[in-house]
Amino acid sequence: MRQLIAGNWKMNGTAAMAADIAAALAAAGELPCDLLVCPPATLIAEVARLLAGAPVAVGGQNCHARASGAHTGDIAAAMLRDAGATWVILGHSERRADHGETNEVVYAKALAAIAAGLTPIVCVGETEAESQAGRTQAVVGSQLAASLPEGFAGAVAYEPIWAIGTGKTPTEADVTAVHGFIRGELKRLLGPAGEDVRILYGGSVKPDNAAALLALPEVGGALVGGASLKAADFLAIAAAAHA
Ligand code: PGA
């Protein structure tokens, strides 16, 4: 399966920035990977319009677990779909930390996303303290078991929290070990279909480390934060992907 390079703009972006990035992505031509951009909600419709016809998908960064109703400030999965999104990031560590999202909430959101026709990217990852205590696999294993609905056919992003936005990355051996562990858990939880779930690595992916990270076994792509805000950097990461 082709690797997926996904850009998470987080709470960044204006219409002018979106136009610049979308123009660069639309002009990029043939890439060795699938490409996805997840702008803030205010820009999804505009970015989807700018990228119509280009081989670049658009996604949301979150959705509500309910289909509609009295949830001021929230966005339903079907509304993301209506705006042109086909993917949604769920359970990002910043959502878990800032909004108290538990695995159970992420599970409910994944169900809502799938019902609306979106493909979820479910994020998992350990804190620095958990990493130092040797608890990475225990934490990631319990996040997967509690967050993924039966028949899950989206992607999983392994994002060590201490590597997000810090410039730090785990060793290649550690990424290989965790991704191998996740693959085993996906097969245990989902059966043979667990083989087809792409496992993205996220956390300080940059043009200068992308090729090494994307070459590791069971790394099915990257979830890119900071470096996705510069089209040249994001495209350099995409160029380092392999089929
Ligand atoms: P980063 O963020 O690339 O800026 O470390 C990754 C993420 O949080 O998805």
**Global shape:** globular
Topology, number of strands: 8
Q: What is the count of helical runs?
A: 10
Beta-strand fraction estimate:
15-25%
Instruction: Encode the helix/strand succession as letters.
Output: EHEHEHEHHEHHEHEHEH
Mean pLDDT: 97
Radius of gyration, in Å, reads 17 Å
Query: Structural class from helices and strands?
Result: alpha/beta
Kindly report the spatial arrangement of strands forming the biggest sheet: 1-2-3-4-5-6-7-8
Report the sheet with the most strands, covering strand number, pairing sense and barrel closure.
8 strands, parallel, barrel
Bound small molecules, by name, code or SMILES, are: 2-phosphoglycolic acid
What does this molecule look like?
The model has no long low-confidence stretch (mean pLDDT 97). Strands 1-2-3-4-5-6-7-8 form an 8-stranded parallel β-barrel, surrounded by 7 helices. Helix 3 links the parallel strand 3 and strand 4. The chain has 10 helices and 8 strands. The longest helix has 19 residues, at 172-190. The protein is α/β, with parallel strands linked by helices and 243 residues long. Helix content is 41%, strand content 16%. The chain has helices at residues 15-26, 44-50, 77-83, 93-99, 103-115, 128-132, 136-147, 172-190, 207-214, 231-239, and strands spanning 4-8, 34-38, 56-60, 87-90, 119-124, 155-158, 198-202, 221-224. The radius of gyration is 17 Å and the shape is globular. It binds 2-phosphoglycolic acid (PGA). Residues 8, 159, 164-165, 202-205, 223-227 line the site of 2-phosphoglycolic acid.
